Amino acid sequence: MARGTQDDSMASQGGGRGPRTSGRGPNDDASAHRWWVLGVVALAQLMVVLDATIVNIALPSAQQDLGFSDGNRQWIVTAYALAFGSLLLFGGRLADLIGRKTTFLVGLVGFAVASAIGGAAPSFQVLVGARALQGLFGALLAPAALSVLTTTFSDPKERAKAFGIYGAIAGAGGAVGLLLGGLLTEYLNWRWCLYVNLIIAVIAFLGAMRLLRPGAPEDRPALDIPGTLLVSGGLFCIVYGFSNAERHAWSAPSTWGFLVASGVLLLAFVWWQQRAEHPLLPLRVVADRDRGASYLAMFISGAGMFGVFLFLTYYLQRTLLYSPVKTGVAFLPMVAVIMISSVVTTNVLVPRVGAKPVVPTGMLCGAGAMVWLTALDRNSTFAAHVLPPLLLMGLGLGMIFGTGLNLATAGVKDHDAGVASAMVNTSQQVGGSIGTSLLNTLATSAATRYASTRPPTAAVAGQAQLHSYMVAYWWSAGFFAVGFLVTLLLYRRGVPRSLATDPNSQTAAAAV
User: How far is residue 266's CA from residue 84's CA, in Å, rounded to a whole number?
Assistant: First the structure.
């Protein structure tokens, strides 16, 4: 990574803002109610994050109701991931160009409407279309929400608290989705896994209308259309290619062809960003070592954490025979530790020792937890064998997400806050897509190889499942081990300049 530019560290000083209303200073509505702003942003982020997992629990019921095949079932998940992952950078830059409040509100309304369509879907095709629309508007909403937070909290101490809470939500949202999906599916029906977004969106919309200030930067550049097309096409191809690998061989043209195309398009995007007059993703945003390390940390942990959410869910339901609701409840201790770890890390550890010892330690905790899970078998119990590694994983994820989210957006100018925020979401989304596909493929292959050399009995089939989970856990541990090395090498020593206490920093929010 190249050394970051010093002028990036002047975030929150007003660059790129529209004019303020006369007589309104740091104590305007946006600053006076900044913790309420955090609540609104947190609600929106929770809606986007939990939607990546809440529908998984509802899939069997939706399949029975709408009558689609096992082969088509994955499109309910893939349609959302494709639209969301491929359009995030565009959504982030749009927030910079037309204003964060406008983008945030459009994203909220669009996400709610798409959720209503999906909940009322009379057919498989309508449901897939609604999920794609959810992904599209989620790509507007997620970076706008994070950039609102980035420009609202400029005081380092308050920023640490805010990002600790936000990081806790980002890390725990997937597990919350599993629990909420189980509750809604079991006690209402699968359609409420989509309808619940309407409730969240209405509350967040009313709060945003009251608390967020309108306006777009006066010096906004033109949208980089070639860059938008290149990066959106590249991200689409990489997400689709890895998703396709779950259903077809890696040697299939529909798999490797899209992956090759993604590499070509993304390389072309980087080349174009160096020459564009108004680049979609200014390379100064990713060139800073701490910021680049944070993007990689979100990418790698996004890939590795699915070893917990995906395969441990399978283990609890298929081996220990937990209900969907009980499975969701089983993840709650990890959620609690993520929240505590994230808040403590950003408020106590990083301001004193910096990110270099914190994030690599979180990666080691993640790797250790995944190795610990490889010991699970049919006789394991939750309290003695599942809970301890879950708590260790929660500790590690809290350290990674709280710190990574903070440093990934620290020190950027206001007019780059949206695209910097989008890079965080893109890193995690693409990492999750790659991790899910690779782990699913590796686990399926491992189960097939195990069963092929043994008699076809029920006991062998059950043991083959356990073996496949163990393989996935080992690979997830490998992801976190790589994350340890990468973050140990890239993060600078000491407290980051962008987070150091500045006596001249504004303690109030910037205009949103």
Answer: 17
| Residues 138-158 as b or e (16 or more Cβ within 10 Å = b) | bbbbbbbbbbbbbbbbbbbeb
3-state secondary structure of 508: coil
2 or 284, greater pLDDT: 284
Cα–Cα distance for residue pair 294/390, rounded to 1 Å: 23
| Helix (H), strand (E) counts: the chain | 19, 0
Structural contact between residues 244 and 254, judged by C-beta atoms closer than 8 angstroms: yes
Half-sphere exposure for 322 (CA within 13 Å, toward CB): 23
Domain ranges, ordered by start, for the chain: 30-223+280-498, 224-279
How would residue 370 be classed by pLDDT, with cut points 50, 70 and 90? very high
pTM of the complete model? 0.81
Report residue 107 as tokens.
């994203």
Alpha-carbon distances, residue 415 vs 173, 244, 421 (angstroms): 28, 36, 11
Just give the CATH number of 30-223+280-498: 1.20.1250.20
Q: Do residues 303 and 479 make contact, with C-beta atoms less than 8 angstroms apart?
A: yes
Indicate the burial class of 48 (C-beta count within 10 angstroms; 0-12, 13-18, 19 or more): buried
Looking at residue 2, the DSSP 8-state letter turns out to be P
Per residue in 76-119, pLDDT tens? 878 888 888 888 888 888 888 888 888 999 999 999 999 999 99
Sequence-distant (≥ 6) Cβ neighbours of residue 146 within 8 angstroms: 41, 45, 166, 405, 409, 421, 424, 425
20, pLDDT greater than 50 = no
Helix, strand, coil tally for the chain in percent (to 5) = 80, 0, 20
* Closest listed residue to residue 95, CA positions, set 412, 401, 408, 420: 420
Give the C-alpha separation, 341 to 350, whole Å.
12
